[in-house]
Specification:
Elements lengths: L4 H26 L12 E6 L7 E2 L4 E3 L23 E18 L5 E15 L16 E13 L2 E14 L5 E15 L5 E7 L3 E2 L6 E5 L8 E2 L6 E12 L2 E12 L3
Antiparallel strand pairs: 1-4, 2-4, 3-14, 4-5, 5-6, 6-7, 7-11, 7-12, 8-9, 8-10, 8-13, 13-14
Length: 263
């Protein structure tokens, strides 16, 4: 079949449009927080709830954005090199928890609940020297997380375990940039197996992380043991340490997102 220049140009334009649309869809999926989580093996869904106001609950655990102030938990924090004071201090601007699903264990009939916590922390300039940062320097960086976790009951007590966490830094690209992101996930406390658990995992470092990009921390393959709500030193969550490049200077922004038992 003879293809004219006009038809060939039409085909090329259609192909370019298709590729462009696919790329946009991919970017949207990558940079948004997923609202679905896979059903754990061996469980079936009893009830499923949308992640919106209709399923919002008082968090079964307390999200503490100032956990770094608790001396007893510092040993499970980031590496010693990160123990210096942050250039930016975290300010928790919102956090909401939703009942996500009620599941049943097909082998023994036991129930398990799944929750989602959404939280946002802003990077607020701390007390700085004029030589370090201009007094009117302000950060527009925020970091948002979506944390999937579940609860199990044993002997009248409730135990919690992380499933996965998403995080995303946002801001104005021509004003601030993220040079590095490191961190750690903790799930520690008295375990459902009656043994103390000090479960911790470093987050894979991100370099030059694009603002608006969503990063997944998948914990399902860790095989971690659920820990007691309200237990001694119970700590469940994530701590992020970012280098923010602003006006040619890299500032440190430490953001802890720990949900801890009600003491």
């Amino acid at each position: 079949m003879k293809v004219t220049k006009k038809k060939l140009l039409s085909f090329l334009m259609m192909g370019a449009l298709t590729l462009s649309t696919a790329n946009l869809a991919s970017a949207s999926e990558t940079n948004d927080f997923p609202d679905q989580d896979s059903v754990p093996t061996g469980y079936s869904i009893i009830n499923q709830y949308p992640i919106n106001e209709s399923s919002e609950v008082n968090g079964p655990l307390k999200l503490d954005s100032n956990v770094e102030q608790q001396d007893s938990l510092k040993t499970q924090s980031l590496t010693n090199e990160s123990a210096t004071d942050s250039n930016y201090i975290p300010e928790l601007t919102s956090d909401k928890t939703y009942m996500y699903r009620e599941l049943k264990n097909e082998s023994n009939g036991e129930s398990m609940k799944q929750y989602v916590t959404d939280a946002k922390v802003a990077a607020v300039p701390g007390n700085k020297d004029q030589s370090d940062v201009q007094k009117d320097d302000k950060s527009d960086i925020t970091v948002t997380i979506r944390m999937f976790y579940h609860s199990k009951n044993k002997g009248g007590n409730t135990y919690y375990g992380l499933d996965k966490i998403y995080y995303r830094y946002e801001g104005t690209p021509d004003r601030s940039k993220i040079s590095t992101v490191t961190g750690r996930v903790n799930q520690q406390g008295p375990g459902i197996n009656d043994n103390a658990q000090l479960q911790s995992s470093k987050i894979q470092p991100q370099y030059g992380l694009a603002l608006g990009k969503t990063v997944l921390v998948d914990l399902k393959s860790k095989g971690w043991v659920e820990v007691l709500d309200g237990g001694l030193l119970t700590q469940v969550g994530i701590e992020l340490l970012a280098g923010i490049s602003n006006s040619g200077i890299v500032h440190e922004f430490r953001a802890p997102f720990f949900i801890t038992g009600q003491f």
